Amino acid sequence: MHLAYHSRKASSAPPFPRGAKMPGLRRSRLKVIALAGFALLTLLYLVTKPNGRHTPYKEYTPSGRPPVVVLTVLDEAKYSSTYLEAIKENRIQYAEKHGYKTFFAKVGDYDMNNAPSSWTSVVAARHVLTQFPDCRYLWFLDQNALIMNPQRTIEAHVMDPARLDEGMIKDYPVVPPDSIIKTFSHLRGRDVEFLLTQDKDGLSSGSWVLKNGEWARFFLETWFDPLYRSYNFQKAETHALEHIVQWHPTILARLGLVAQRTVNSYSTGDHGEAYQPGDLAVRFIDCSTPSACEKEAEPYIAQSRAAFQSS
C-alpha cells in the first residue's frame, strides 16, 4: 500500500513572525546609532582639530588702557556750580597728566529704588567698569576732596605690590577697635584687589581703589545687593561695606588696608589722620553744610592749582 506523500511542516516557527513590523523597528535603531556616531565624530573633530583644541578657563585680564579711571559723584542740588567746577578741573588735570580718564556721575543719574543717595558711588563704579572694561584701576574720590600731589600715581605710589607689602596693615581689626575680624596676616601685595583706609570711626568709604577684573564685578554686585540697600544702616553704603568685609572671607582675602594718608588724608585731625604737604589727596571732613564745606575747601583749591601749574 502506498501512502500519499505529504510535505512535512517545519519544526520551528519562522524567525520573524512579525515580519511586517521589524524592518521599521530596525530602521529606528539604526537611525539612533547613526546619530550617536555622528555626534561622537563631531566631538572628536572639535577636540582634535588644530585651531579648536579645548583650553582651560582663563580669567580676562584688562589691557590697562586707560591705567586708571578717577570717579567722582557730584551733587548739583546741594553744591554751587563754582565749587563743583573746581572739583572737576582738579580731577581732569590729574588724569591728563598721567594718561588717566575721569568719570563724573551725578546724584539722580541712577534709579536707587529709594535708597540713600550716597549709594550712587557704588552703582557708578559698576558703570565705570562697563564704560572702561580695559582700565586697570578705578579710583573713587569723594566730591569733598582734592588731589594735592600731581606727581603721585595710583600704579606706582598706591597699588604697587612691593609698596603694599611694606605698608599694608595686617592682623588688625577691620572695624576698630573691637572687631574680632582682622585683616589677613599672610596677604601679599600682588593679591590685593581692593584698597581701603580707616579713620577713628571705622572704614572710610570716601576714597578707595579697585583693581578691575572679574573679582571687582563680584565685589560690586555683592556690595550693591538690594538687601543691603534696603536695610536701615546708619551710614548706608559705608556700614554695608563694613558688614560684607567682616563676614565674607572671599572679600576680606582681597582687601588691602593701608595708612589713611595714602589716599585719604583729612583736612583736620579730629576724625582721622590730618593732611600733610606731599599727601596725594585731602578730604574736607567737617562739612556740616555745603557752604561750610566750600569755605573749608578754598585754601586747598588754591594750593592744588599751584601744584598743578608747577608740575
Largest sheet data: 6 strands, mixed
Question: Assembly type of the shown chains?
Answer: single chain
CA-based shape? elongated
Q: Remind me, CATH topology?
A: Spore Coat Polysaccharide Biosynthesis Protein SpsA, Chain A
Q: What is the number of beta strands?
A: 9
- Cα end-to-end separation: 137 Å
Highest-level CATH class: Alpha Beta
Widest β-sheet, arrangement of strands: 2-1-3-6-5-7
CATH superfamily: Spore Coat Polysaccharide Biosynthesis Protein SpsA, Chain A
Overall radius of gyration? 33 Å
Strand content: 5-15%
- Give the helix tally: 10
Helix and strand element order: HEHEHEEHHEEHHHHEEEH
Which range best describes the helical content: under 10%, 10-25%, 25-40%, 40-55%, 55-70% or over 70%? 25-40%
CATH architecture: Alpha-Beta Complex
Pfam family, one: Glyco_transf_34
GO molecular function, one term: alpha-1,6-mannosyltransferase activity
InterPro entries: Glyco_trans_34, Nucleotide-diphossugar_trans
Keywords: Glycosyltransferase, Membrane, Transferase, Transmembrane, Transmembrane helix
Question: Please, could you describe this protein's structure?
Answer:
By secondary structure, this protein is an alpha/beta fold. It has a single domain (about 70-310), classed as Spore Coat Polysaccharide Biosynthesis Protein SpsA, Chain A (Alpha-Beta Complex), CATH 3.90.550. Helix content is about 40%, strand content about 15%. A 6-stranded mixed beta sheet has the order 2-1-3-6-5-7, with helices on both faces. A 3-stranded mixed beta sheet has the order 4-9-8. Helix 2 packs parallel to helix 10 and helix 3 (about 120-130) packs antiparallel against helix 6 (about 215-225). It is elongated and about 90 Å long. Mean pLDDT is about 85; it is low at about 1-20.
